[in-house]
Structure formats: structure tokens, C-alpha cells
């Protein structure tokens, strides 16, 4: 099975907003980053992946199965890590284990205690006393303790301090070593995904911009800098978006070859970060 998640022509209409004909594939054994501005449709898309929202049209499959006939089997194989505490705050981790464990056929007590020790989490303190980072670790420990094959993370690093964010990213990289686990990681902190993602799904205003490997994103997108005198109606066609200043222009392209052909050595070409790409595409894909 190459794709753990497949969304085909998925559409969902809300008041004043729509997710339109989204096609997304999440490959087995890799980290897929999911990016987009606030309100782009990331959380709604994740809810459809988890069967918490039903699409108005299109098809959602996980592990090659659909929720209509295999909901319990699919949910056994998913772990969800949210950016906020999803447990009753008065409970401690022992209580939560007693409640959550029996819900999963593959629950592993030994594994649970191993992760609790590794993450340095107290078993007998109420979850409401945990820091945000500790709550994140608790959610992750529970997801891992039932041998989840797909871990879906919705803004897991939001609100974490830089040191803990880095620790969490290092931990996720360690979890991927055996190649049996898949992570789908939604975040607006694009530097995190620059570090750990193998693939990037980018949506904007409910529409898919691209679903590419991080290598292809680096190969296709670049920032181009040069003098204003180089711009005219024809040369600007090489760019997705151009920003002008008194000292020159900076532009985003998804066609580096065309830029080199048109401008030669008269411009500077730099690799575009995910943040650069999101910034320049904020107004939609358009040639200025």
C-alpha cells in the first residue's frame, strides 16, 4: 500500500467558504506536512480524514478502506495529536489509560509506560497541571501505545517554546526510523516542516496549490532578485508574484529554467522557503 490516505475530488461547503475538489495522497512511511494560512481549510480537511466531517462530494479512503464499511478498523490504526488538551482535565494518565486502553485491540501497556518514562510524564498528576508541551507528549504517548500506523497532528507545535519544539521534532524523526509509521503534520510554523517533512501539501482558500515532495518544492520554487529595469510585461510572465521596491524587485517563480533562460546572470536566484512560498501566494496564484 503506497498511499495511507487518499482524498479524491473532496468538496465541502460551509457558509461563505468551500473546500473544492481536493486531491491529496499521503504516502506510507513518510512525514507529510500540511500548510496553509489560518482559515485555508486545514482543520476541516483533517476532520474529513477522521470522519468527523462528511464531504459533500468526493471520496475519502484510509489504508485503502472507506469509513462507510470500515470505520472501526480505520480508527484502530490512527493516532491523533491535537494542539490542545483533548482529555478531561481532572484525570491523570493512569485514569486515562484505564479509559482509553480497552477501546483499542492493539493497546500495549508496556509501551505506554515506556513512553511515559521516556517523556518524563507524571502518572498521578491531573492533566490540567501539565504544561502545553507535556499535554502534547501525553497525547503522543497514547497514540503510540496502540501501535497507530498513521499519526495525524493538527498544529502540534503551536504555542510551544523553541526548545521543546525542537525536542518534539527530534522525537518525531526518531519515530520514523523503522519506516512503518506515517505522520501527517499540519502546521503554520513552516520552519518545522522544512526540517522534518518529506512531502508538502499546500492548500489556500480551500483549494490545493500543490502536493509535492520537499525535494520537488526546492527544485521548482525559487526567489528571484534583480533590478526594476529588467521587468516588463513579457519578463514578468516567468513569475508567480512580483514585489517591487526602490532598490529592485523580489519575485517567486515555479519555473527556474525559464528564469535562467530569460535573465541569464543578471538576477540572483535563491531557494524559496515554505514561508516564502506561502507569503507570495497569499493573494492567489497570479502573474502580476
From TrEMBL:
Recorded hits in Pfam families, A to Z, give: ABC_tran
> What species is this protein from?
Lederbergia galactosidilytica
For this UniProt record, give its keywords in alphabetical order, as a comma-separated list. Answer: ATP-binding, Nucleotide-binding, Transport
Statement: the UniProt record of this protein carries the keyword Transport: yes
Supply the name of the protein.
Sodium ABC transporter ATP-binding protein
Alphabetized SUPFAM superfamilies for the sequence: P-loop containing nucleoside triphosphate hydrolases
Which Gene3D superfamilies does the entry link to?
P-loop containing nucleotide triphosphate hydrolases (3.40.50.300)
Family annotation (PROSITE patterns): ABC_TRANSPORTER_1, ABC_TRANSPORTER_2
Q: Name one GO molecular function term.
A: ATP hydrolysis activity
Database matches in PANTHER family:
ABC TRANSPORTER ATP-BINDING COMPONENT (PTHR42939:SF3), ABC TRANSPORTER ATP-BINDING PROTEIN ALBC-RELATED (PTHR42939)
Ranges of residues in domain ABC transporter = 5-230
Amino acid at each position: 500500500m503506497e498511499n495511507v490516505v487518499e482524498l479524491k475530488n473532496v468538496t465541502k461547503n460551509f457558509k461563505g467558504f468551500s473546500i473544492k475538489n481536493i486531491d491529496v495522497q499521503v504516502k506510507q512511511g513518510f512525514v507529510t506536512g500540511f500548510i496553509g494560512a489560518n482559515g485555508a481549510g486545514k482543520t476541516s480537511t483533517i476532520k474529513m480524514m477522521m470522519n468527523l466531517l462528511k464531504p459533500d462530494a468526493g471520496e475519502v479512503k484510509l489504508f485503502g478502506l472507506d469509513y462507510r464499511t470500515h470505520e472501526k478498523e480505520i480508527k484502530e490504526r490512527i493516532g491523533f495529536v491535537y494542539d490542545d488538551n483533548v482529555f478531561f482535565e481532572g484525570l491523570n494518565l493512569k485514569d486515562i489509560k484505564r479509559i482509553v486502553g480497552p477501546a483499542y485491540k492493539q493497546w500495549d501497556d508496556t509501551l505506554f509506560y515506556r513512553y511515559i518514562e521516556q517523556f518524563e510524564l507524571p502518572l498521578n498528576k491531573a492533566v490540567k497541571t501539565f504544561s502545553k508541551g507535556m499535554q502534547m507528549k501525553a497525547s503522543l504517548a497514547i497514540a503510540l501505545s496502540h501501535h497507530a500506523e498513521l499519526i495525524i497532528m493538527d498544529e502540534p507545535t503551536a504555542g510551544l517554546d523553541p526548545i521543546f519544539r525542537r525536542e518534539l521534532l527530534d522525537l518525531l524523526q526518531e519515530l520514523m526510523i523503522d519506516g512503518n509509521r506515517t505522520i501527517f503534520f499540519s502546521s503554520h510554523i513552516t520552519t518545522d516542516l522544512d526540517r522534518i517533512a518529506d512531502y508538502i501539501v499546500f492548500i489556500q482558500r480551500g483549494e490545493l496549490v500543490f502536493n509535492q515532495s520537499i525535494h520537488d518544492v526546492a527544485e521548482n520554487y525559487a526567489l528571484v532578485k534583480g533590478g526594476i529595469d529588467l521587468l516588463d510585461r513579457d519578463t514578468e510572465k516567468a513569475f508567480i508574484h512580483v514585489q517591487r521596491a526602490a532598490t529592485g524587485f523580489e519575485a517567486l517563480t515555479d519555473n527556474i529554467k525559464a528564469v535562467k533562460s530569460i535573465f541569464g546572470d543578471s538576477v540572483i536566484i535563491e531557494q524559496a522557503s515554505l514561508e516564502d512560498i506561502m507569503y507570495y501566494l497569499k493573494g492567489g496564484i497570479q502573474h502580476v
